[in-house]
Every structure is written in C-alpha cells, then in structure tokens.
C-alpha cells in the first residue's frame, strides 16, 4: 500500500502567488504532499512549473502530485496524478503509468468511491464538504454528516480506500471531520488566502494529526 499523507495541499491559479511560490511556502511550512493543480497552461508552461516545483519538493522530501495531465508522466519528476474526471478509467490509467505512480481520483457519491477502490485508485478526494470558490460546482455540500454516512457505508461493504474530505474546509471544521473516520483532508483556499500562509498550513497540519482516528 502506498504512502498517502493525511493533509494534501493543492496549488491554484491565484493573482498574488505563483504555483511555484505556493509550493515553496508550503514546503517551508512543512508540507509533505503537494498537488499541483493548473488547468490553464500549455504543456510547455506546465513542465516549466512542474520541474521547478519538483526541485523544491525534492529538497524538502515532499510528494508531488499533478492534477490530470497524465500525459506528462515520465517527462518530469512526478510521483503521482489526481484525476478529477469521475468517469476516468483507473484500470487503463494504471496500465499507462505503471505500478509505482500514485493515482488518486475525485468522487462525490458512494458509487464513485466503490469504483475507485475496485479499479485500484490509491486514494479518493470526496466532496465538496462546503461551498468553495476554488473549484466551483453544483454539487450539494456534504457537511460532516455526509462523511459519517459514507464512511459507515464503505465499512459495511468492506470497501477500503483512503478518503480525503475536500472543498471549502476551514480550520474549525477539521476536528469534527476527522472524527468521522475519514483518512485526511485536502485544502487550498483556506491556506492560499490566509493572512499568514505558513501559519495557516501548520494550523491545519496540527489539527489533522491531533484529530485523526485511524
């Protein structure tokens, strides 16, 4: 079973910090898992970013995951990919990237989670927890009760996949969320737009570690 960090930090297109600057600050804050999420650049621009971020991650011993863009596998020092397409074929993806690359997927139903587990995804981002401007969507927020229910259902069916809550999570949500039995959380906006980026990351990290029940 692959190592999956309990706090996933996700970069984003924002005006005041480049993706590289976001990654640098996250690593300085102690991040062990960075998901580079950029859907607005050409392959050449993406690789320029990814190579710079990979160097930073290598210096800090941080896992680098890239959102989508699986066609870039082997062209940079990328440890894994997170696929946002909920219909992505993970059996075909695994054949494409091989056994060592980490593959995560997005889900918003129990059925999505079951399929990801059956097709060999290494983890699932499940949400949205709340409304979020980072990744606008029309899905109904799950709130804490939604995570309690899905973890209960997965356990009842003996479905085993690390589930991370994602979408609009604030520090004051973390303790109750982690108590539902989820594996971890993924955060972007609450760190990127905090008054103190590094302090915000470290607050999330401490809360996740102290609140984890598994």
Automatic annotation (TrEMBL):
GO terms for biological process: thiamine biosynthetic process. Gene3D superfamilies: Aldolase class I (3.20.20.70). Keywords: Thiamine biosynthesis. One of its GO terms (molecular function) is thiamine-phosphate diphosphorylase activity. The keyword Iron does not apply. One of its GO terms (cellular component) is cytoplasm. It comes from the Bacteria. The keyword DNA damage does not apply. Pathway: Cofactor biosynthesis; thiamine diphosphate biosynthesis. Residues 10-191 form the Thiamine phosphate synthase/TenI domain. This is Thiamine-phosphate pyrophosphorylase.
